[in-house]
Amino acid sequence: MNQSTERCTTLFFDLDGTLADPREGITRCLQYSLEQLGRPAPPQAELVQYIGPPLRWTFPRLLGTDDTTLVEAAIERYRQRYATVGLFENELYPGISQLLGALHDTGFRLFVVTSKPTVYAERIVQHFDLTEYFEAVFGPHLDGRFDDKRELLAHILHERAIAPERSVMIGDRASDIAAGKVNGTRTIAVTYGFGSTEELAAANPDWMCHSPSEIRRTLDGPPPTRCRAG
Fold this sequence. Notes:
Layout: E1 10-13, E2 20-21, H1 23-36, H2 44-47, H3 55-63, H4 68-82, E3 91-92, H5 96-106, E4 109-113, H6 118-127, E5 136-138, H7 149-159, E6 167-171, H8 174-182, E7 186-190, H9 197-203, E8 207-209, H10 212-220, H11 225-228
Parallel strand pairs: 1-4, 1-6, 4-5, 6-7, 7-8
Antiparallel strand pairs: 2-3
């Protein structure tokens, strides 16, 4: 890494669609929840679009209702399967372990910032032996607090006294990019996850990367002005 990039030192990684591919577990758990409620379950291919947003955003759309009692019942059934089975129907994207190891060794501070509740996200990070790379894993509470990633990232920046202008938010959905922009960080959109190229381009990230290795090259390259600033 050249000297001019050293001031940009903190990286916030989304989990689903950025570090790991959870499509099997999440789509099967969505199907299970709907079936348990006596509702028709769309095929897995149709449910992929719901990977990323919080469940309290997803189920009103799948159920066609804003009835909070029904939505919470759906979430409860989803978690029945997810906590024991779906959590591990998951795999890292190729090159992620090498990327994180290299960034950690370079001296970046790494955090997971996800819409998945912390209690599950921590287990996934541990399952894939990634704990040593991350300073902490942050997600919403089970009751929905911090479901909005913009609020979650603001909380982390404040709690850890991190300068946003020296940070980068990395994710595969427009909500990841929006969270970074609202909070004053730089942003990297990854195209190998679940957000379409059109969705990500419309979010106007600072960079778009097509693979984990490209994330590394981007972070090693010439920095934007705000990462150079003191």
